[in-house]
Structure prediction request, 236 residues.
Amino acid sequence: MRNVATVIACLTVTMFASCKKDPTPDPIFLLEERQVGTERYVYEYDDQNRLTKRSRYENGILQGVDIFKYDPDGHLEELEYGNLKHTFTKNGDKITFDYHGVLAEIELNAQGHFVKRKSVNEYSKSTQTFTWQNGNLTKVEAEYENIHDAGTWTRTYTHDNKKSPFYYCKTPKWVLWLWLVAEEYNENNIETVETIDEVEGDDYYEHEYTYNTDGLPTKRTASWGGEPTTYKYMKR
Prediction:
């Protein structure tokens, strides 16, 4: 009986051990993004996994550096590039700033996603409304007015089920979207983009990806042609 009890105890331990969850994978961060021709971007992060620097190179020569600075609460407080500087003020769910002479306000939802942007200067004004689903931007609706014309446009997105290059990055999504002008701020990768524009005309294109063994894209090719965008990563 003692041997039977010992066997049962061993089996129990084995069963519980086999039910343990796999350890959380080490976060992987975008290190380098190579775009058109010889242009490439190199990214650096702090110990809280936030973007702190983006360096732009052309033909191997440094062309510019963007510095991201955060306040003690983790909000982007200041962004420097060259001799220029942007400051951001957060008040509740709204962030205000001066973007190249345009006064702008971004409104965030409870998840920290940007859901509305208002911009105005002496020549124009615009409002953009954003719809999110499962951490991905799925729709943008915009209306604008300037000294030349006025109109509206709508852009819709679909996504794959793989991690995006900035999946593990803790920098607020609105920063990646606004400053990097990048499509990698989503949880997943954009597959299709459709624009309905009553003034500029409609547009549609697709993306195809090559992935590494970690499920992250290493190459993105657009249906409109041009050179692919390639990505390199590092583990922390």
In short: The CA atoms of residues 193 and 226 lie 16 Å apart. The first strand starts at residue 28 and ends at 34. Helices lie at 2-18, 173-179.
